[in-house]
Amino acid sequence: MAKTRVLVEFGMGTSLRRADYTEAAARALRDALWRNSVNMAELFGFPKDAMIVEAQIGVQQPDQVDVSALTSIFPYGQVQITVAKGGLDIDKPDDAGCTVMANAAISVYFDMEPAQ
Questions:
Q1: Is residue 114 helix, strand or coil?
Q2: Cα 26-31-36 angle, rounded to 5 deg
Q3: Longest CA pairwise span in the chain (Å)
Q4: Measuring CA to CA, how many Å separate 100 from each of 8, 9, 73?
Q5: For 21-63, what is each residue's pLDDT tens digit?
Q6: Under a CB-based contact definition with an 8 Å cutoff, are residues 7 and 40 in contact?
Q7: Whether this model's pTM surpasses 0.70
Q8: Is-contact 54 3, C-beta < 8 A?
Q9: 105, exposed or middle or buried, with CB in 10 Å at 0-12, 13-18, 19+?
Q10: Partners of 35 in the beta sheet?
Q11: DSSP string across 3-55
Q12: Tell me, what DSSP letter sits at residue 68?
């Protein structure tokens, strides 16, 4: 069996006032997840726990993201989250902090033989 990607979704999230990188990342993940309802496990006849979910998040300060707090967003599947430098920090006027923007990409895989 080969790890075969069957779905990719993208999302964007922000923390407008608190510059909370974890919250911006969580909103980006929810945006990607809830953009549509695709029942991939049922489509391929697999249990939901067989889903291999890889989430990539981009923010300007990756070390400020609490990855363990993000795993609960996923209702099922084997979840792996990685955080890298990306996204945007948009400065507010008069040194009043910044707005944080996070980007997320979620890929879903199954262990299965790819179509020929």
A1: coil
A2: 140
A3: 59
A4: 23, 21, 20
A5: 999 999 999 999 987 666 778 888 899 999 999 999 999 999 9
A6: yes
A7: yes
A8: no
A9: middle
A10: none
A11: EEEEEEEEEEEEESSS--HHHHHHHHHHHHHTT----HHHHHT--GGG-EEEE
A12: H
